[in-house]
Amino acid sequence: MARGLVNATSVPLETESRTAVQIKLMGAYSSSFASGPPSKASTSPASKAPPDSTPNRTQRAHCWEARDVFFRCLDHNNIIDSITDHDLARKQCGREEVAFGENCASSWVHYFKKRRVMEHKRSETIEKLRAGGAQPLPGGGSAVSRGPPN
Q1: In whole angstroms, what is the distance from residue 111 CA to residue 102 CA?
Q2: How many Cα atoms occupy the beta-carbon half-sphere of 99 within 13 Å?
Q3: Residue 85 per-residue DSSP state
């Protein structure tokens, strides 16, 4: 690695493993992750990557596409939590779930499923706050406040 380069946390790259740097870059340049998925690489035959390698751009794109197809199926069938409602999700979206598992590392699959539930709960909470008179914070933040005290 080149001397003098630093990563997002200002730590010289010479002190980090190549895999750690790749994982940080994957999260930094991905628009689909707030903080990046777990670092376990895909072991599926479709990915053609060694088990301990970081997925390349094409493999990540296939994973995200399979995730999106699976989540559209869940949306169509009004299933939010495919972990808790596993039997129903498998019955309604089994093919899509299999493709999702084949194109993504199992740790990514679990991460995305949990994130889906968390984002749904977050949206519900924000809607409840807005219905109760809450207003967005100044500066374009996504959090809401009840406004100034009276």
Answers
A1: 15
A2: 14
A3: T
The helix or strand, by DSSP H or E, that contains position 94, with its residue range, turns out to be helix 86-103
Q: Is 123 exposed, middle or buried (0-12, 13-18, 19+ CB in 10 A)?
A: exposed
Q: Please, which contacts does 58-62 make with residues 24 or more away whose CB atoms are closer than 8 Å? A: 59/103, 60/26, 60/30, 62/103
Q: Which residues of 101-122 are buried (b: 16+ CB within 10 A; e: fewer)?
A: bbbbbeebbebbbebbeeeeee
Whole-prediction pTM: 0.58
Looking at residue 55, its pLDDT comes to 87
pLDDT band at 33 (very low <50, low <70, confident <90, very high): very low
pLDDT, tens digit, for every residue of 45-70?
444 445 557 889 999 999 999 999 99
